[in-house]
Amino acid sequence: MRIQTKICGVSTSEAVTASIGHGAAWLGFMMFAKSPRYVTADQAASLSAPMPGHVGKVAVLVDPDDELVGRAIGAGMKILQLHGHESPERVVALRRSTGAEIWKVISVRTAADLAGAAAYRGAADRILYDAKTPDGAALPGGMGLRFDWNLLAGFDHPLPWALSGGLDATSVAEAVAISGASAVDVSSGVESAPGVKDVDKIAAFLQATGRL
């Protein structure tokens, strides 16, 4: 089974080229101003313009208002990844108004957190399980944290799903083996510093997932 991979938080043409060249299924563009990976909708449009049609364009948003959602769609984003406290009702409304595919992030620290995914059955298209950040953290993700992957083993997922949180080229095989993930998402694990994508680490990660 081929593992599909999303490289998240790309902000340079070099990172885009490396991700596409080594087989990424999706590229994520972080439209959240507090993030070190922040890009504007116009920057995302420019960066994603040369992407081939088979690579998904993902806008990563945190409790976005309708104006920002409109800018993301106008930039050519085909998937909205919602990383805030968006309710199932808000997800349904965005799916209807934009026609985009919707991914909803579920932040996980304990088994009880997984229960939140069920509320998005019929609302979102995919669940992305990520590590829950500390209370009061400025960022909802992308901090290199991981949760116990054993929590996902045998879990009855309500939707197609992907795994994120603390992955890198050395850990992704173990993460997939334990969790059963068929799709993974990486951000800080392919960086040399926060927000600075490393093309060699991107290549190594995608080569690692390609061997699974």
Automatic annotation (TrEMBL):
Q: Does the keyword Amino-acid biosynthesis apply?
A: yes
Could you tell me which pathway this protein works in? Amino-acid biosynthesis; L-tryptophan biosynthesis; L-tryptophan from chorismate: step 3/5
Matching entries from InterPro entries are given as:
Aldolase_TIM, PRAI_dom, RibuloseP-bd_barrel, TrpF_fam
Return the EC number: 5.3.1.24
Domain named N-(5'phosphoribosyl) anthranilate isomerase (PRAI): residues: 6-208
CDD domains recorded? PRAI
Q: Which UniProt keywords apply?
A: Amino-acid biosynthesis, Aromatic amino acid biosynthesis, Isomerase, Tryptophan biosynthesis
**Example GO molecular function:** phosphoribosylanthranilate isomerase activity
Q: Which domain of life is it from?
A: Bacteria
Catalysed reaction equations from the record: N-(5-phospho-beta-D-ribosyl)anthranilate = 1-(2-carboxyphenylamino)-1-deoxy-D-ribulose 5-phosphate
Regarding protein family, the annotation reads:
Belongs to the TrpF family.
Task: Please state what the protein is called.
Answer: N-(5'-phosphoribosyl)anthranilate isomerase
Classification from the root reads: Bacteria, Pseudomonadati, Pseudomonadota, Alphaproteobacteria, Sphingomonadales
